[in-house]
Amino acid sequence: MHASDAVLEHIDANLNASLDRLLALVRFPSVGTDPKYHGDCRGAAAWLIREFEGLGFAASLHETTGNPVVIGKYAKPGQPSHTPHILFYGHYDVQPADPVELWHSPPFEPEIRKGKDGKSQIFGRGASDDKGQFMTFVEACRAWLAVHGTLPFRLTLLIEGDEEGDASHLDRFLAGNRSNPDLAADVAFVCDTGMWDDRTPAINTFLRGCIAEEVVVSGPRIDLHSGYYGGPAANPIKVLSRILAAIHDKNGKVAIPGFYEGVKPIPAQTRKDWAKLKFSHKQFLGDVGLSLPAGEKNFTALEQIWARPTAEVNGIEGGYTGTGAKTVLPARAMAKLTFRLVGGQNPHHVRVAFRKFVKGMLPSDCKVTFSAQGGESSGVSVTSDSTYVKAARSALTAEWGRAPVMIGSGGSIPVVESFKKHLKMESLLVGFSREDDSEHSPNEKYDVESFHKGMRSWARIFAELN
Hints:
Blueprint: H1 5-13, H2 15-26, H3 38-54, E1 58-62, E2 69-74, E3 85-91, E4 111-114, E5 120-123, H4 131-148, E6 154-160, H5 168-176, E7 187-190, E8 202-207, E9 209-218, E10 224-225, H6 226-229, H7 236-245, H8 268-275, H9 281-286, H10 301-307, E11 310-318, E12 328-329, E13 332-341, H11 347-360, E14 367-372, E15 380-381, H12 387-400, E16 405-409, H13 414-423, E17 427-430, E18 445-447, H14 448-465
Parallel strand pairs: 3-6, 3-7, 7-17, 8-16
Antiparallel strand pairs: 1-2, 2-6, 4-5, 5-18, 8-15, 8-17, 9-13, 9-14, 10-12, 11-13
Helix pairs in contact: 1-4, 1-14, 2-4, 4-14, 5-13, 12-14
């Protein structure tokens, strides 16, 4: 019998118990970016410590400049020195649930029900991002220990509480603990990515970085009557809107001077390989109610997502937004932006270039203030031919019946850069979320199949390392 066969049977037989544990974790409203939920973040961290201790791990809480980090350690006494040491990463913090009124069930009262496709799905904030994802690994460890009594590797679990908000907290923690032997692993496993499609697994080999900015334009010292001042008085909303509209040219290219410094062309062979994936932008956009491709001309939607940097406006606020009319010129207007960056770009230089761009378009009698939101992460790539990638290829093919696609990601996982920078460690990025999981939107869900086969996938990877 293969080392994983009995483990797979154990996973199948105990699926309901695994689901119960996931639902218990999702019930914590662990919104890391909102101080009023920081007690719930600590509650989720305490719950994880109890679970890790129940598995026989040494578990502890570590303070950071943000929410605490949970570390679980496992090593069988007498294991040979060449036994692989794996650092597994996940995050217990979740996105805010707003707008709550759009949820079909309370976001922190998770439930399992049939989705639009008739499949059983787990609904709740964090069900996919990232509680359901990292619990696939934890539950695979539980099943392996139940069957074999020991794991085939040394393990450090590192579960943080600030991924959705400010990555600098964990970055500082890792920088300050770079000599900690518990973190000196051979590889980091990260389960915060997705499938290529509903039936095909994927391994991520590069990610975009990210910076976020808040910009506030101020004009008159008070709100003004639009009948008396409309025309001669500078309107901060008009000023800010004009600046935001100028960020992109007519071809969708970012017009901020210096923005593309360090960006390399996509290699011709890479473009050919990606074209073979037959990614449908019509289906991709159609799934979210759109039809016309935007972004940079002369780049496919997939190339834009994986290999091109972006500048996006995430929110605008200013003036009167209540019921009815109010004839007013606002004293200020605010916008929030994020910049997704690719390898070669310097996040700090991009931030400086943006601020210079805004100041250059500002009328002389208006003022502007900037506020960096969160940390700065660069685009990063990871090796695609390591022992661990090969093990994952074999294991995922066996579980899903299809070889995994080697992909990039338009999103950011800042810790991957931190692992490289501070711990000199490569990462294996394998995840089981699907495009329709609504991870940052109302009605977030995680397919029961993703959770179930995710556990089975990790068990098969364990066997490849055995």
